[in-house]
Amino acid sequence: MSTDPRTIVIVGAGQAGGWAARTLRSEGFGGRVVLIGDEAHPPYERPPLSKAVLAGEAAPESAHLLDAATLATLSVEWLASARVARLDRAARQIELADGSTIAYDKLILCTGGRARMLDVPGADLPGVHTLRTIDDAQRLGSALRPGARVAVVGGGWIGLEVAATARKRGAEVTVIEAMRRLCERSIPAALSEHLLALHAARGTEVLLDTGVAGISAIASGGLRVALANGREIDCDVAVVGIGLVPNDELARAAGLACEGGVLVDAQCRTSDPDIFAAGDVAVARNGWAGRSMRLESWQNAQEQGIAAAKSALGHAVHYDPLPWFWSDQHDTNLQIYGVPQPSHQVVVRGDPASGSFVFFYLDGQCVTAALGGNAARDLRFARRLIEQRKPVRRQDLADPAVSLARL
Ligand SMILES: Cc1cc2nc3c(=O)[nH]c(=O)nc-3n(C[C@H](O)[C@H](O)[C@H](O)COP(=O)(O)OP(=O)(O)OC[C@H]3O[C@@H](n4cnc5c(N)ncnc54)[C@H](O)[C@@H]3O)c2cc1C
Question: Is 384 inside a domain boundary?
Fold first, then answer.
């Protein structure tokens, strides 16, 4: 290592933080890198937590992005189980929960988010789970025994993946969704229908348009979920998957501009030029979506973590990714490129009932977003159509006999 005197501190040792640390070194930074995380684990990827790790098919360690030995080889000072309690911008230092301080020249905030809690009586009872960390996945996994009755509150991506994995483990599952359809905010009605059929066919009961009024412990053991419509569901395990709250408190208390997350520009820079942010906690304008938003995805955690590190080193960065997200539920791999806009026209390729299909969103003759099931190859070409903003004919998109590669 060179003797670069500068110190770059990364707060949050998750996926974005791990990539930021790795990138500082791969870009040749020779100064001090301090990576601070309040979990006991080294940086890891979360998608397996609702899939293979929760199913008991993969060890939690398989999700690690960097292990302790690699961090040591990279000369990254990794502080585990250490929470940053305060950010003092005037003194350019962070303060840990134990009162110790670390000075920085550049700071990268990668604090992610936490699971949103259900705001009803009994939501904090033992047996009510959320799923964000490896520790959460291990606790929940051990409760998903064959025959266990599982109530999943929230029919979004995490709730549906948990439902699918719980069925795989032989549990009886009920999904309770407050909206009128599954994943209502992110997908068209036809795909919600497809997901509903997929889960119902695998024996999951899905209740739509159904609120939860409270949860109570049953004297004989287990939990009772009281629904807003008066029905009661007895279960052994309840899992709440109702979204994410960004961990932007440090930034807000320090006076950084925040709007439902830490505001950053295309250089991943916050309103303080020496502080950067990346991953689930960051809000940036996305040119493909035409608005500012947080991107809660594996792709963004990695790519924005890399971009923030480069930017902190003074390299030219313009981060405006075409959003990409995937979800695995039962035997279906769903992928979304771009941000589907309800006002755009939809062209369907393939038959959702067959399990393999793509929905294209078009603005005029240009594809702006595509989402599909078990259609990875078509979606890779769809991505190129979106990125190249190439005009296409609707009938070609809709005809599976016309190769997208040719378009
Ligand atoms: C169960 C699950 C399944 C998912 N599946 C998919 C999927 O299939 N496809 C997909 O694209 N995306 C998926 N995602 C989303 C993806 O994993 C996240 O977008 C990604 O993990 C975000 O990374 P991050 O580094 O921004 O945040 P995180 O990974 O949450 O890391 C932030 C870290 O910072 C720590 N921290 C926070 N505050 C402090 C503090 N003050 N001091 C110290 N440390 C702090 C947190 O404890 C955490 O360890 C899934 C997420 C979950 C939870």
Answer: yes
